[in-house]
TrEMBL record:
Name of the protein described by the UniProt record: Exonuclease
InterPro entries: RNaseH-like_sf (IPR012337), RNaseH_sf (IPR036397), Rv2179c-like (IPR033390)
Organism the protein comes from: Niastella vici
Gene Ontology molecular function: any one: nucleic acid binding
Domain 3'-5' exoribonuclease Rv2179c-like, residue spans: 3-159
UniProt keyword annotation of Hydrolase present: yes
Domain of life: Bacteria
Annotated signal peptide: none
The keyword Nuclease is annotated on this UniProt entry: yes
Keywords recorded for this protein, A-Z: Exonuclease, Hydrolase, Nuclease
Lineage of the species this protein comes from: Bacteria, Pseudomonadati, Bacteroidota, Chitinophagia, Chitinophagales
Amino acid sequence: MAYIMVDIESDGPIPGDYSMICFGAVLVDEQLNKTFYAKLKPISEKYIPEALAVSGFSREETLAFDDAATVMNDFANWIKKVAKDRPVFISDNNGFDWMFICWYFHHFTGTNPFGFSSQNLGSLYKGLVKDTFQNFKHLRRTKHTHNPVDDAKGNAEALLTLKGEYGLKIKL
């Protein structure tokens, strides 16, 4: 399986009513050098200024970003290129990140290369350490900046640490 760590930034809590502003992905392997980054033009007039502010972009800047259909097709092609077998979506907050990526793939391309399921890095860590009160974020090496490639890379580093130092059985 090809684990692809994903992180998204949006201007609101749900896709459709609000927009995914940018996202990043990294193929989880020892090099962490296969990345994808995209900025997407809003698909809705609605946005929450505080949510948008997390991305570091203004509404005016986002209006010049790339068309969502083009971006999602490019992302699907990137996945085909880097995933030698079945791609697996994984993220720090898959309830949020998956919701946007899945919706955008189905809405703009008609299919989702990840299929119908996703993995949650935080839950995986909690299970490994057998403690639902623990958090994996101390395992990141790359600073969490809200640049989605940085954030995905930090989370991928944490997953590699789970494999190398915690004995997680995972085929990367």
